[in-house]
Amino acid sequence: MFAVIMAGGSGTRFWPASRESVPKQFLRITSDRTMFEETLARVRLFAADDRIYSVVCSAHAELVRGLLSSNLPQTLTEPVGRNTAACIGLSAIHISRRDPDEPIAFLPADHFVADAECFARTINAAAEAARSGAIITLGIRPTRPETGYGYIEIGAEAGRARNEPYFRMERFVEKPDQATALGYLTGGRHLWNSGIFVLSARAILREFENCLPALAEGLREIESAIGRADYSEVLGRVYERIQSVSIDYGVMEKTSSPVFVFKADFGWSDVGSWQALYELRRADYDEQDNLLMGDAVAIGAKGNFVYAESERVVALLGVENLIVVDTPDAVLVARLDRSQDVKKFPEMLKARGRSDVA
Amino acid sequence: MFAVIMAGGSGTRFWPASRESVPKQFLRITSDRTMFEETLARVRLFAADDRIYSVVCSAHAELVRGLLSSNLPQTLTEPVGRNTAACIGLSAIHISRRDPDEPIAFLPADHFVADAECFARTINAAAEAARSGAIITLGIRPTRPETGYGYIEIGAEAGRARNEPYFRMERFVEKPDQATALGYLTGGRHLWNSGIFVLSARAILREFENCLPALAEGLREIESAIGRADYSEVLGRVYERIQSVSIDYGVMEKTSSPVFVFKADFGWSDVGSWQALYELRRADYDEQDNLLMGDAVAIGAKGNFVYAESERVVALLGVENLIVVDTPDAVLVARLDRSQDVKKFPEMLKARGRSDVA
User: Fold this and answer.
1) Across the interface, do B313 and A331 touch by the CB < 8 Å criterion?
2) Which residue in chain B is spatially nearest to A323 when comparing CA positions?
3) Is the pLDDT assigned to residue B2 strictly greater than 90?
4) Distance between CA atoms of residues B312 and A322, nearest Å
5) Are B110 and B189 in a shared domain?
6) Contacting residues of A for B348, CB less than 8 Å apart
7) Do B265 and B331 reside in the same domain of the chain?
8) Which residue of A has its CA nearest to B338?
């Protein structure tokens, strides 16, 4: 099977560690390796090196090359980020030329998975189901009443692959409120939307023709230029005009084809904020529940997260439940439970003429 | 009259901005000038340039020379800090050769004074009273039940100078508890000990003979070497052996001579912590009571104090009542009301082999 690591994102939720020039998937936050490298290691459990692709923004191509000395996956570059539909489409037209019917696992480069073996088993089962041309997605069994994720509502069991049951998808559900999320947790019919899809190039390109015809047309134009001298020029021209839309919104919510869902249980997080990162690294807390990454000292401080990139010492005194991020040109001090608002700083700093730190 | 700026201190209460190499009096924390420069400007309101002395530790002599391009006060260096008694003694033996009976105002270099004109008037009145050979100190009228200061208990009015009454000192009182401090505030007989003294060289050297005979002997030895080639060597030898004691404890609490007190009202603070500094710079707060010194941005943050020395941006999100200090090699994040414990970090860091940031 094929695998596509979608590494084109450029979030600002980990500012000031993440920047436009170094988005989250290139940070060493979940381990000593970047999230991109972690994802690649996971993918190699089920895909051969010559069948692994990554899609990155051209601005980060150099960065990716630096990370991957050998065993480089095929890297496709996008001139600008145009969300997941375009990213998936671009890789699909390239893979289609090699084998249009072989399943492809599309995986975000910036997710955390605790149990990589379990992850590989689920992907293999999903690939088996996708061989018939079906659209497969992975839904994560909720472990808490999370209001920060979208959900997938599932219906009856639709079949089995490698002894794993899969279910008919009823619909995508936007981020719920607390009461609704609690109902989902106990109801058993709602799973977190992982953003992980498994289907063949033929299947996804067919869906684009039906759901996103303008994108499909653009992809045909790029495809016809593959191997030609003007490929980059065509790519740039098409990316200039195509719509920025997610695969969830542009295809999965609109398609009339059936979508099938595997229930996944491999310890998953989209690591959407400093707080989410703090929570998933519980094993590294000190006795006062501080997570100290970097050179930090603490007196009477509890439940804090220090992420220090530089040689500088970070000293905490009497504070609780803070995230402190120290980088060479910016320092963040925030309440951990406000860390979803961190992305406001890059905007604010740009408006103040400090794009250098945004 | 003479003035002596006592700049030999080396506190760590403003770590990481203050270090052994750059103590508080050389920080620009109360204005755009260092506290040393502020003190010098204040002193020039009542003393002629050629009658102003400063006493600094030899480790800081270069730093002081850098601050004072012209109008340099006579600078006396101490090989090591030996507290206020030695500092006062050293300057007294030098000034004694010029005029043993002229009053000298001894002033710490690291105090804040809001009303410099009022300060100068009080010092002039104190000098008038000191011309008779008396020991004069300044007591600050308390404005809150402060438990962080020592107090002076005063008795009956003892006389007037330049129309200002002065009082007999009854005794020095150590830092009181909250209830006692509240009693002092309303009782009217207790003043904050300012650490500012006015008396002649003859008077203070006489007190040393009575109260600190070993120090007096050492001072005579240094005095005999003034102008000789071996002055530095003698100074070093004497400083090696003499006791480190404050003028309050070593002389003022022990003397059998009367001590007189002027009540002062010029808006005084010893600026003993980041919290004290935050409180006295109320005029510079933003609308959310943040005091932002340096390049800082805040979202939903209240009552914080950012002191950023570098070009780095400091971003605050949702936090309250913190002190954040950013320096090139260390960052402090502390609760403002715990800022008296900041001095623990240099010790802790030294113990961990990080003397470079202590």
Assistant:
1) yes
2) B317
3) yes
4) 20
5) yes
6) 297, 299
7) no
8) A318
ipTM of model = 0.89
Which of A313, A319, A330 shows the shortest C-beta gap to B315?
A330
Residue A339 phi/psi, 5-degree rounding, is -70, -15
Confidence class for position B70, pLDDT limits 50, 70, 90 = low
Return the biggest CA–CA distance within chain A: 64
Tell whether B82 and B226 lie within a shared domain.
yes
Residues of A in contact with B354 (CB under 8 A): 313
One domain, residues A122 and A228: yes
Query: What is d(CA A165, CA A136) in angstroms, rounded to the nearest whole number?
Result: 12
Indicate whether B277 belongs to any domain: no
The residue in chain A having the minimum alpha-carbon distance to the alpha carbon of residue B327 is A312
Q: Which two tokens stand for residue B90?
A: 């050293």
Look at the alpha carbons of A287, A291, A293, A299 in this order and tell me if their dihedral is positive or negative.
negative
* pLDDT more than 90, % of chain B: 91
**In terms of domains, do B25 and B126 share one?**
yes
What pLDDT, on a 0 to 100 scale, did the predictor assign at position A311?
Answer: 86
Judged by CB atoms closer than 8 Å, whether chains meet at A345 and B314 is answered as no
- pLDDT band at A71; cut points 50, 70, 90: low
Nearest CA in chain A to B312: A329
One domain, residues A146 and A287: no
Partners of A339 on chain B (C-beta within 8 Å) are: 317
- Examine the domain organization and report whether A186 and A286 are in the same domain: no
Nearest by CB to residue B316, choosing from A300, A319, A333, is A333
> Which residues, in sequence order, are bridge partners of residue A52?
A3
Omega before B16 cis (within 30°)?
Answer: yes
Nearest CA distance, A183 vs chain B (angstrom): 30
Q: Which of B232, B247, B272 is the last residue of a domain?
A: B272
pTM summary value: 0.89
| Nearest-neighbour CA in chain B from A80: distance (Å) | 28
Among the candidates B272, B305, B323, a domain finishes at B272
Q: Is the pLDDT of residue A237 over 80?
A: yes
Question: Is B305 a domain residue?
Answer: yes
Nearest-CA distance B299 → chain A (Å): 8
pLDDT level of residue A10 (50, 70, 90 thresholds): confident
Q: Assess whether B143 and B169 both reside in one domain.
A: yes
Domain count, chain A: 2
Q: What is the structure's pLDDT at A301? A: 98
Q: Which residue of A has its CA nearest to B310?
A: A329
Q: Check CB contact under 8 Å for B345 and A315.
A: yes
Place of tokens 């001072």: B219
Q: Find the domain containing B131 and state its range.
A: 2-272
CB–CB contact A334 B344 (8 Å): no
Residue B143 sits in a domain of what CATH number? Answer: 3.90.550.10
- For residue B357, which residues of chain A lie inside 8 Å, CB to CB? 313
Closest partner CB to B331 (pick from A314, A318, A337): A314
Interface test with B, best of A299, A317, A354 (most B CBs within 10 A): A317
pLDDT value for A21: 86
Does some domain include residue B201?
Answer: yes
Percent of chain B whose predicted confidence (pLDDT) is above 70: 99
Residue B13 lies in a domain: yes
